[in-house]
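Example 3.2
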Amino acid sequence: MPGDRHADPAGPWFGATTTPAHRSRHGGRLACRDAVIAEIERAEFLAAEVREALVACTRHCTPDLAFRVLLSTMVNDASDRSLSPEQYARMETIGSALLYGEFVVDSVEFLVEQESPPVPARVVGRRLNGVHRHMVGRPS
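Structure, written as tokens:
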């Protein structure tokens, strides 16, 4: 019905107008716009011009496209970068909101900082009354 069509703030990406059903299907993608922008702005490994372009893409095109480009740059230029577990959790949340399959955000999981393993205890041998006894202690 012509009366059901409304101007879409996403502009030309979804077409000049959309139906209410179309907006409800794509509303989750548009709703996470601020979260995608926040992750782009945290990506200090990107040149300022690239971050600005991705933010513009998020605002004027789709958060989906901008987030996929961000993930791709992380995978392709991963030599000196890592993600905190919190960053990765935020990215998984965004991926879920964008209805990504399980392997899209997982492509950067290898960048997540691992906690340092605990210092292993060492066994120190000691003879008491002719019997070899073991004591557990921390390395000094």
